[in-house]
Amino acid sequence: MDSQTTTTTTTTNSAVFVTGDRSPATPTITRTLRLIQEQNDDPVKKIQAAKEIRRLTKTSPRLRRLFSDAIPSLVSMLRSTCLEANSAALLALLNLAVQDETNKISTVDAGALEPIITFFQMGNQNMQEHATALLATLSASPVKRLTIGASGAIQFLVKGLNHGTPQAKMDAVMALSNLSSEKHNLGIILQSQPIPYLVNILKTSKKSSKISERCTGLIESLTDFEEGRVALTSEEGGVLAVVEVLERGSPQNREHAVGALLTMCQSDRCRYREPILKEGVIPGLLELTVQGMPNAQSKAHVLLRLLRESPYPRSELEPDTLENIVCGIISQIEGDEQSGNAKQVLADMVQVSMEQSLRHLQQRALVCTSSDAP
């Protein structure tokens, strides 16, 4: 929790002060706080005050602290029958919660989750987008992730992966990624069957994009469950989408991808070895052992060993298969780990393996009907 969260606000007859630096607020801030907290129901004034809070707190951590007392009133506006009041309050709460742990917790504690869920049922795309953005921000608080998971929000976030606007999809992935840090939430996410939507986002997104990284990270977490592994292999192009991320993703994304494939293979090598191999994973794995981040390199080495150690007898009549090439690579690395020549040997073998895989890769390219979005 950052140091900003220890400050509080006090009100006098003439001004509002921030405890800690005793700097007076402007008359505009004082008036805005009073308007939002007034008991009389003047929706026009409250909407104006909410919009002013949103404007003032857009970039100011200090003003987010100063306006924290407005949170209960803004949450009450979420229950209004006026759509404009709902929207103004949502956006004000969103700005108040950004990079402010205390305001995140206060928003949830004030009862914001229940009205937020109702906005997903309204059929209003703008309200759904605002609600998703607020959930993505609130879910950044580890303290409230279980509460958010138990609120019923997850099923709507998963639906947003399929039907939401591009921004809503990004926010939904972020919220689900945050919530997935709690194992109980992971189970709820899995029950909502997100794998087809995550795979579709991977197919249509740049492999190095943030949304792709979040999707692959979530898939990696879901492959800890047998239901997640089955869902990925059952989805057409599911394993291929992860392999393509492994080949062309950002360094972090490639680590997520190899982690997901490794989890699958370690859980049941006989079942998942062939589905992984048939998507031409070997060239990307070999490159990862040379160019990946340390954790990704380690995972790639382990996965290569699992893929080469077939539970069935290896044919002596196929010395040039990729499987045997990998076997030779691993043995050279293991025997020459301290040598400066090891990486060069591996790099040379990567080229050989890619040439061996060329026919498969060309066939795979013919059946790919979608390309990366710009």
UniProtKB/TrEMBL annotation:
It comes from Mikania micrantha (bitter vine). SMART domains: ARM. Gene3D superfamilies: Leucine-rich Repeat Variant. PANTHER family: ARMADILLO-LIKE HELICAL PROTEIN, U BOX DOMAIN-CONTAINING. This is U-box domain-containing protein. Residues 45-309 form the U-box domain. PROSITE patterns: ARM_REPEAT. Residues 1-12 have a biased composition (Low complexity). ARM repeats lie at residues 69-111, 193-237. It comes from the Eukaryota. InterPro entries: ARM-like, ARM-type_fold, ARM_PUB, Armadillo. Residues 1-23 are annotated as: Disordered. Keywords: Repeat, Ubl conjugation pathway.
